[in-house]
Amino acid sequence: MNRTGVLALAALGLLGLGVGARARGVGAPPALACGPDAVHLVDGVAHCGAGRAPSAAQRRVLGGKLDLNRVSEADLARVPGVGAPLARALVLRREQRGPFGDWSEVATVSGVGPTRLGALRAALELR
């Protein structure tokens, strides 16, 4: 292939990347106008409004917080900074004494110090 052919292929490649970036919506506003709490799934596609609520993992991807008083031990263990041992301790405390009323109760669980409490508050909520 001659130099002109190589340059033509390179130009087409660059044009293709530009078109692809625009088609993917780079820099475009979010596709859904509702917040993470209002997102529901219909046939596996996220929509605002009625439908099946997203799983815990899907809520995290959508930027939503998980409810510490309802999340399963397995889903809690996947939250960054939690892990299996702390997830077990938090669920055990919840089962023994009922739902957490405020974050000071969470702070009494073994393994939860000020730093970890901050991480928990960033990823979880108490409803």
Describe the structure.
- The protein has helices at residues 3-24, 56-61, 73-77, 83-97, 103-106, 114-123; strands spanning 39-42, 45-48, 66-67, 124-125.
- It is mostly helical and 127 residues long.
- The strands form two sheets. A two-stranded antiparallel ribbon has the order 1-2. Strands 3-4 form a two-stranded parallel ribbon.
- Strand 1 (39-42) and strand 2 form a beta hairpin.
- It is extended, with a radius of gyration of 22 Å.
- It starts with a helix and ends with a strand.
- The relative contact order is 0.10.
- Residues 14-26 have low confidence and may be disordered.
Mean pLDDT: 74
Strand content: 5-15%
Give the overall shape, derived from the CA principal axes. extended
Distance between the termini: 66 Å
Based on CA atoms alone, the radius of gyration comes out at 22 Å
Question: Tags for this entry?
Answer:
127 residues; two-stranded parallel sheet; 49% helix; mainly alpha; two-stranded antiparallel ribbon; single chain
